[in-house]
Design a protein that fits this description.
Strand content of chain A: 5-15%
Number of strands of chain B: 26
Order of helices and strands of chain A: HEHHEEH
Largest sheet of chain B: 13 strands, mixed
Largest interface: A-B, 26 and 26 residues
Oligomer: heterodimer
Number of helices of chain B: 31
Radius of gyration of chain A: 15 Å
Shape of chain A: globular
Helix content of chain A: 40-55%
Helix content of chain B: 40-55%
Distance between the termini of chain A: 33 Å
Chain lengths: 117, 933
């Protein structure tokens, strides 16, 4: 399911393949957020290492919503502007947990290999 | 699971696209606005901030497009694209598409039509209530021999079945005997056809009818289309004359079924009241006879008496009284076999039980009532046959016909599939380059295959659709076409949906399979060499490549072989038909005109009858163009004959199965029947009404073996003693097939009577031209005389072999179909083979080969395939034709002329189909061919 959005390569550091969805879901889990908010959060959490432009972000968001992982809701935001907020669905939550576990296994394995030499 | 989500999202997107687009717009706008704000807070100028934010976005439209792509349902999207591409491709390859669709349409459509037709006409189960319960009661007996003469005088059809003869006619008292067996049958009913009833007054047309017992319609469970049907009460001698019309006749005459009820119609000058119309699907019990009228069984005497003219001027005619009397006697005569007996089985009773229960009682009845004890050793044996399909079941072995028919359908189907496969294989190879280009540009192998599958399915759908349309249209159009030339009755054929489904399924499956298989293979091809444009298959040298080439050729050879088999079969049927038409009729049937001339209403006595026909003949002979005129009592080779028994006084010889033919002046001359010994009956003897006779050779040989029959006396049942004056050649009196009975000819003036007599004219040119002169002369001679049923002898004979005509025509259609389809496939395969050899051809031409040399070489290859096909097809045909031996007449299954002719025709077709691609190959430019290497 964690397939790269078709076509575009990621920019700057290049978000590792297949992890964009994981990152988005994690961010949204903390609190529901609109598109700009997600992008800002990602940038601040990674100290600028990962940046994503909306041309890649929105397709990802719409894809996650299509697959039933996210749900979008229009809300009045701060400063009274209406925006679309994305929040995690139970299905998305479950999937996120699965992928977190898998990610941890993978990184541990790689770390072991790297340490052994 | 994800699939479902995706599908739901797709549907939502389809339905609420505007909403989603607006949401997307606002999302993006919102993003840009926030980004701009942030940049302004960082210190940028508002305009610059917005521009920067937009640049970050990277193009609104691209973003939107990518979102749309995400939301759209990938498979459907690509399906739409593939379909459009498939259409474009098909439009480009017009020839191929046309040929493929043709093969599909013909294989499905024409095949189904022809099969439906034969199925409907030949063996549809009766459209009556619970046909499985019906039985026909029949008997079989050994053929009469000298010591055991035939015991069953009477009309009706007797068919040869293996070594015995079979018939379904019974004496009327036996019908009553069956009726008494309530424990076996819930209903017993009977029928008897009657032909050529005169309709209306005047020289009107005639129609056929069916006598039925009162419970006929009830037993069959058939309901009336209008009015009511015959009931028991109508079937009494004293009952008022009523008739039920067939749907076709009623509507044709009165405009609608309802309008017919209550009308009066004159049949043989007797007024009948129409009480109802039979339902349209209710054809008949015997597919050969399509009665226009259903009459009560006991109305026979009425019709025979030809109306109330029982008393003629000069006193009651002994003949007329005798005729009616003997007709009444028919209902009591235990030795006159004429009624067909049907029954409906009681539930739980089987046909074997019926046979076991009825055999002995019938044998006892037969023995008790036998007048000529000499027949006792050969009693008829009762049998109960299934009546599900009607009386026709007696005539033909259903299993055989169905098998032959089905075999033809399967063969055509195979040929069609092979053709389609050939064409597709050829196409696939030719498009290798295209596929290689696509793959090198990044298309996945799967997507190329998917696209080819779409093409195949699309082609299959178009071809299949065409096939279905052709089936439906063909079933409607074929009926009148095939009925032309026979007695003109309308066949109604129903489309046979199971066969349509079968042909549709098989051909479509083939199309898809063969569209796909080469695609899968071709996408494995080395891209590089394919891109180079080399037309020769680089894998032709690999074992796999060789296999594919061989497979293609095998297909073609198989098609040719099958076409040959069909063509031989069709030719055999056609030959049978020709033989039936030109068979030793014993007389010359061309140029003969027949007409019924009926003088009953004129009230002539014997002298007047003689004078009338005598004068008629004189006047006819004076008409320019008429060579001679005569008359007879029944039509030769007409399907029915008058059978009587003949004894030779002074001996114990009795023959019970003799054709008796009443003739007029110069009969043998008119019919061109050869006189072998003695002389024919002279004009003076006819005038004088002398009791003389001519016998045919069969009679002379059978009863006088060796001795000279001339001068001897014979005694003809009901006619008296006659002296033989001559021996004629054998002529067909009854059906063309089957054995000929011996015949005796004597003059009509010996016992003249005013019933219709058949006038025969031998004329030059088209006999029908003399119809008007005939009518005029008759009207002139007597205003009360009627002329009807004018037809040529040839047409009349054709009527008796209408089924053979049908069979021959249809099987010819099958064979032609196979050949056309095979040639279409051949065209494809040969094109492929030629294309494959282009570089080689180029080299040859560069080295000096002329165009004609190349052409000849190509044609040799084509013919090589043809010969291979013949080599396989011929033995197969020899085996197969043995199965149809029972349908043939006058031609053996292995007739060398037919075999050779068919082989030649197939070879010619092959050469013709292969010529175009071969000549294309020969026009190759050697430089272009070499360059592509």
């Amino acid at each position: 399911m964690f397939r790269k959005p078709k076509g575009r390569a990621e920019d700057r550091l290049g978000i590792p393949q297949g992890t964009l969805y994981l990152l988005i879901l994690t961010i949204v889990r903390r609190e529901p957020s609109h598109g700009y908010g997600i992008a800002q959060r990602l940038q601040s959490l990674t100290d600028g290492a990962f940046q994503i432009n909306p041309g890649s972000l929105f397709p990802a968001l719409y894809a996650l919503e299509r697959d039933g992982m996210l749900r979008s809701v229009e809300r009045a935001s701060d400063n009274n502007r209406r925006a679309r907020y994305y929040e995690l669905t139970p299905r998305g939550r479950k999937r996120l947990e699965q992928e977190e576990q898998r990610w941890e296994r993978v990184t541990n394995a790689i770390a072991n290999v790297l340490r052994s030499t | 699971m994800t699939f479902l989500y995706r599908l739901r999202a797709f549907v939502r997107w389809l339905v609420r696209r505007d909403e989603i687009e607006r949401a997307l717009d606002s999302d993006l706008e919102d993003y840009v606005a926030r980004s701009t704000e942030a940049k302004i807070r960082d210190g940028m100028a508002p305009a610059a901030a917005r521009r920067a934010a937009l640049i970050e976005l990277g193009g609104v439209e691209q973003a939107k497009t990518r979102v749309r792509e995400t939301l759209s349902f990938q498979p459907l999207d690509s399906l739409v694209r593939d379909t459009r591409y498939a259409f474009r491709t098909m439009r480009r390859q017009k020839t191929f598409t046309a040929l493929a669709v043709l093969c599909l349409a013909l294989g499905i459509g024409a095949n189904t039509t022809i099969f439906s037709f034969m199925d409907s006409v030949l063996f549809r189960a009766l459209p009556v209530d619970r046909p499985a319960e019906l039985v026909i009661l029949q008997w079989t007996a050994n053929r009469p021999t000298e010591s055991v003469p035939w015991a069953m005088p009477g009309r009706g059809d007797v068919v040869a079945v293996e070594s015995r003869l079979r018939s379904d006619n019974w004496p009327y008292p036996v019908l009553e005997l069956f009726e008494g067996r309530r424990e076996l049958f819930t209903e017993v009913f009977g029928s008897q056809p009657v032909s050529q009833l005169r309709i209306d007054l005047g020289d009107g047309p005639t129609g056929d009818g069916l006598y039925v017992t009162g419970n006929f319609f009830r037993s069959l469970g058939v309901g009336a289309r209008a009015g009511r049907l015959l009931a028991e009460d109508d079937d009494r001698f004293e009952a008022p004359p009523v008739v039920v019309l067939s749907s076709v006749f009623g509507v044709a005459r009165y405009g609608s079924a309802e309008a017919a009820v209550g009308q009066t119609i004159r049949l043989n000058d007797v007024a009948f009241t129409v009480i109802g119309v039979a339902p349209p699907a209710f054809f008949r019990l015997d597919p050969e006879r399509r009665p226009s009228f259903y009459l009560p069984m006991r109305s026979g005497p009425l019709l025979v008496a030809a109306g109330p003219r029982l008393t003629l001027p000069g006193g009651p005619s002994r003949f007329a009284a005798a005729l009616v009397g003997s007709t009444l006697e028919m209902y009591q005569d235990p030795e006159f076999y004429w009624v067909s007996a049907w029954a409906r089985l009681r539930p739980g009773v089987s046909r074997e039980q019926v046979q076991a229960a009825l055999r002995s009682p019938f044998e006892r009845f037969f023995a008790d009532n036998l007048r000529n004890q000499a027949s006792l050793p050969n009693p008829p044996r009762l049998e109960a046959a299934s009546g599900t399909a009607g009386r026709d079941g007696m005539r033909r072995n259903y299993g055989e016909t169905l098998f032959v028919l089905f075999a033809m359908v399967v063969v055509i189907l195979t040929v069609a599939c092979a053709s389609i496969a050939s064409l597709l294989l050829e196409r696939a190879t030719a498009r290798r380059r295209e596929m290689a280009v696509r793959m090198s540009l990044g298309a996945g192998r799967l997507s190329v295959i998917r696209q080819l599958l779409t093409e195949s399915v699309l082609l299959a759908l178009i071809g299949g659709g065409a096939g279905v349309v052709l089936s439906i249209a063909g079933t409607r159009a074929l009926a009148p076409l095939l009925a032309a030339g026979t007695d003109g009755a309308l066949f109604r054929a129903e489309l046979n949906w199971p066969v349509l489904g079968l042909t549709l399924g098989v051909t479509l499956l083939t199309g898809v399979l063969f569209g796909l298989a080469p695609a899968i293979h071709a996408t494995r091809v080395a891209v590089f060499s394919a891109l180079k444009g080399s037309r020769s298959a680089p894998d032709a040298d690999t074992p796999k490549g060789r296999h594919r080439v061989a497979f293609g050729q095998m297909l073609v050879v198989a098609q040719i072989a099958l076409s040959l088999v069909l063509l031989i079969g069709a030719s055999l049927f056609a030959a049978t038909l020709t033989n039936l038409r030109t068979t030793e009729l014993g007389f010359n049937q061309e140029g003969l005109l027949l007409a019924n001339v009926d003088t009953t209403r004129a009230g002539y006595d014997a002298v007047a009858v003689k004078s009338f026909y005598g004068t008629l003949r004189e006047r006819l002979r004076q008409v320019p163009g008429i060579d001679s005129a005569s008359l007879s009592w029944s039509v030769l080779a007409g399907g029915s004959a008058y059978i009587r028994s003949v004894t030779i006084p002074g001996t114990s010889t009795q023959a019970t199965d003799i054709n008796t033919q009443v003739i007029g002046h110069s009969f043998f001359e008119t019919m061109q029947i050869e006189i072998l010994a003695g002389r024919s009956i002279g004009d003076w003897e006819v005038d004088a009404g002398e009791p003389v006779a001519v016998v045919d050779r069969s009679f002379a040989e059978t009863f006088f073996s060796g001795a000279d029959p001339i001068g001897r006396t014979i005694d003809v049942q009901d006619e008296g003693q006659l002296r033989i004056v001559g021996v004629s050649a054998n002529a067909r009196h009854d059906m063309i097939r089957g054995d000929a009975r011996p015949a005796v000819y004597y003059t009509y003036t010996w016992d003249p009577h005013p019933l219709y007599n058949m006038v025969v004219l031998r004329a030059q040119g088209d006999p029908l031209n003399y119809a008007e002169p005939l009518r005029t002369i008759v009207r002139d001679l007597s205003p009360d005389a009627r002329v009807n049923s004018i037809r040529t002898q040839a047409a009349n004979t054709d009527r008796t072999i209408s089924r053979e005509i049908l069979f021959a025509r249809l099987s010819n259609a099958f064979a032609l179909l196979a050949l056309v389809i095979a040639c279409a496939g051949l065209y494809g395969t040969v094109s492929y083979a030629m294309a494959r050899q282009t570089p080689e051809t180029g080299i040859r031409m560069a080295l000096g080969a002329t165009r004609s040399l190349v052409l000849r070489r190509a044609l040799r290859q084509v013919l090589g395939l043809g010969v291979a096909g013949l080599a396989i097809g011929m033995p197969a045909a020899l085996v197969a034709s043995r199965y149809i031996e029972s349908f043939l007449w006058g031609v053996t299954a292995h007739d060398p002329v037919i075999l050779a002719g068919a082989a030649f025709a197939v070879l010619a077709a092959v050469a013709a189909a292969g010529y175009a691609p071969a000549s294309r190959a020969s026009k190759v430019d050697p430089m272009a061919a070499l360059r592509s290497e």
